[in-house]
Specification:
mainly beta; four-stranded antiparallel beta sheet; 15 strands; 54% strand
């Protein structure tokens, strides 16, 4: 967590998020009390991200095609679910879809999650006070977007298509919409995307 005192581990196939106390000096993890948050049957929490300023944690649920917002108590290091939003359009058939990744923009205004099967990036606006989500829509992307990334300046998003060997680039507009820029050929079956800032010479 931002205070470097707690660690959370999504355990996808056990439908829980493990909660630990973290000793930064020794690196030791100790189960918190309780030691996990149970998400419900066949939800499949996969990845998580903290809001940059609010005490909120966002978890993408691989099997449930959704994002859950958790309240994070910085005093106890415990999570409490607040709301869950679907990553798919209303009426969409989720039988062939699984969620993969989730990111929040550096300014905390938008959250994005990737859909494998629907092959899209779901966007959400973030309430500045509650941290809760409002769906913004879905942007088509490369097939099976297992991983994507937001640049450190929050201006661009890059999504990798695992079977297409392509990296799709988007501009993140001020309203959270994603505007396609281009695609780049990359290595076979890209699994991960990392955006870094390189200092000017």
């Amino acid at each position: 967590d931002p205070s470097n005192q707690y660690v959370f581990v999504p355990v996808t196939n056990s439908d829980q998020i493990a909660q630990y106390e973290f000793d930064a000096s020794s690196g030791q993890l100790t189960p918190n009390q309780p030691g996990s948050v149970v998400t419900g049957s066949n939800v499949g929490p996969r990845h998580l991200v903290f809001h940059p300023t609010l005490a909120r944690l966002y978890v993408v649920n691989e099997h449930a095609d959704s994002v859950t917002v958790y309240d994070f108590d910085p005093q106890t290091g415990l999570l409490d679910p607040l709301e869950t939003e679907s990553t798919l359009p209303a009426g969409a058939n989720g039988s062939n879809n699984t969620c993969a990744d989730i990111h929040v923009t550096p300014d905390g205004k938008h959250v994005y999650a990737s859909n494998r099967g629907h092959d899209s990036i779901a966007g959400f606006s973030v309430d500045a006070t509650s941290g809760e989500l409002t769906p913004l829509g879905h942007t088509p992307t490369e097939e099976t977007p297992r991983e994507f990334e937001i640049t450190p300046d929050g201006r661009h998003l890059y999504a990798a298509g695992q079977p297409t060997n392509q990296l799709a680039a988007y501009t993140i507009e001020t309203d959270g919409a994603l505007t396609p820029i281009t695609t780049y050929p990359v290595g076979q079956a890209p699994l991960w995307v990392l955006a870094i800032s390189v200092p000017s010479p």
